[in-house]
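lol forgot to send this yesterday, sorry. struct tokens for the thing we talked abt
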């Protein structure tokens, strides 16, 4: 296992995807991820993520630290709690969160994810 520092802004090829049709609520969001780091256990990940406008359902099995670098999003829990985040905001989405993710302005973020063992 390497102990070298990993830059999150290093050039990487993006993986592109879309929310699954059964989770899509509105728009045609395009998602891109540049995963810069995965630890040896496969439980910790860090990198960059971007999305275009749209809204989809989410269910987190992982805990994720997000730092918004551009755009504006609204995350709403199934219980109705709404949070709006924009460039410079940092927040954690805990494992077990269920609700919606809506991109109001094309956005990007830096993420660090910890996936709990099953």
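and heres what i got for the seq, position by position
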């Amino acid at each position: 296992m390497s102990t070298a520092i990993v830059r999150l802004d290093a050039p990487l090829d993006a993986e592109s995807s879309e929310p699954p049709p059964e989770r899509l609520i509105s728009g045609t969001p395009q998602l891109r991820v540049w995963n810069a780091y995965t630890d040896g256990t496969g439980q910790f990940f860090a990198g960059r993520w971007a999305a275009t406008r749209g809204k989809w359902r989410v269910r987190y099995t992982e805990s994720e630290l997000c730092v918004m670098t551009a755009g504006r999003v609204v995350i709403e829990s199934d219980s109705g709690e709404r949070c709006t985040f924009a460039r410079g905001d940092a927040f954690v989405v805990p494992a077990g969160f269920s609700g919606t993710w809506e991109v109001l302005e094309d956005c990007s973020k830096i993420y660090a994810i910890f996936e709990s063992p099953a």
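The two ends are 23 Å apart (CA to CA). anyway ping me if u want another try
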